[in-house]
Design goal:
Strand content: 5-15%
Order of helices and strands: EEHEHHEEHEEHHEHEHHHH
Strand order of the largest sheet: 1-2-3-4-6-9
Largest sheet: 6 strands, mixed
Radius of gyration: 20 Å
Number of helices: 11
Structural class: alpha/beta
Oligomer: single chain
């Protein structure tokens, strides 16, 4: 691990705690954020000792989204040539998309713990996570429409697979706030906790449960679930047959069966 300016990263009991660490700026996503998150999730992917990830925000709020000073800086780079402006904007958007794709593609499960504001770019981020949990004070908003733009780093592509189409369109078109109870009802979050302390305790408990499982089985399960977002059932069945033809040779299967038969808790290698 390295020192980061926008994040604090800890490895706790096989769980990587990735915390957005700009509480004085409501954890807004500055230029360093977009570069560092790729490096962090590359480290997570490459480190077998990491079994699961908890993504949180320091302070009262998860994140207020993209840092407006970053957008102002980008606007200052635009000139009079529409073609060159478009080239600059497109390359910037693609780089930002890659930051959240790194979260989505991570082979370890990523659990988002959300308190307070989760606005704009923060919705893009949690949409790339495997599961989302929040405290009672959480407030969600697809805010880009109020900024005169369409969300462009993942919300409109990933969130329709998480919540229903009709409510997705309503939130994207209106930018209205969604409180914790509604977020639970529409499937945006899995569970609501009373406060931030209970949220982190609860999410870490779920992460520890995942971390105790076979890392081979967990990675394979995530790979299959991700694959099925864009493939037919018969494609998925063929893929899992090929995948497990290799993975069922893992020692983890023998360890799990032996532990089940002896009614002991299994311990799996990284």
């Amino acid at each position: 691990m390295s020192d980061y300016s926008a994040f604090k990263v800890e490895l706790i009991d096989s769980i990587a705690h990735v915390q957005i660490n700009r509480p004085d700026k409501i954890n807004s996503m500055n230029a360093a954020f977009w570069e560092e998150i790729i490096a962090i999730f590359r480290w997570i992917d490459d480190t077998d000792a990491v079994r699961a990830v908890v993504l949180s925000g320091a302070g009262k709020h998860f994140s207020s989204g993209i840092d407006l000073t970053m957008l102002a800086s980008l606007a200052g780079q635009l000139g009079k040539d529409a073609g060159r402006n478009a080239r600059l904007l497109r390359s910037t958007i693609l780089r930002m998309q890659a930051s959240f794709t790194a979260v989505d593609k991570c082979r370890k499960p990523v659990l988002a713990a959300i308190q307070g504001y989760c606005i704009g770019g923060a919705i893009d981020l949690v949409s790339a996570c495997d599961m989302r949990y929040c405290s009672q004070d959480a407030q969600f908003s697809i805010k880009e429409v109020d900024m005169g733009m369409a969300a462009d780093v993942g919300t409109l592509q990933r969130l329709p697979r998480i919540i229903g189409d009709g409510i997705m369109r309503e939130l994207a078109f209106t930018g209205r706030q969604v409180a914790a109870d509604e977020a639970l009802r529409i499937g945006l979050v899995n569970r609501v906790y009373d406060d931030q302390a209970a949220l982190l305790d609860g999410v870490f408990a779920i992460a520890r449960e995942i971390a105790a499982k076979s890392p081979i089985a967990v990675a394979g399960t995530k790979q299959m679930l991700s694959y099925m977002r864009d493939h037919r059932i018969d494609d998925g069945l063929d893929y899992i047959a090929t995948w497990n033809a290799a993975m069922l040779q893992s020692e983890d299967l023998r360890v799990a069966v032996a532990a089940h038969m002896s009614k002991q808790k299994p311990t799996f290698a990284d």
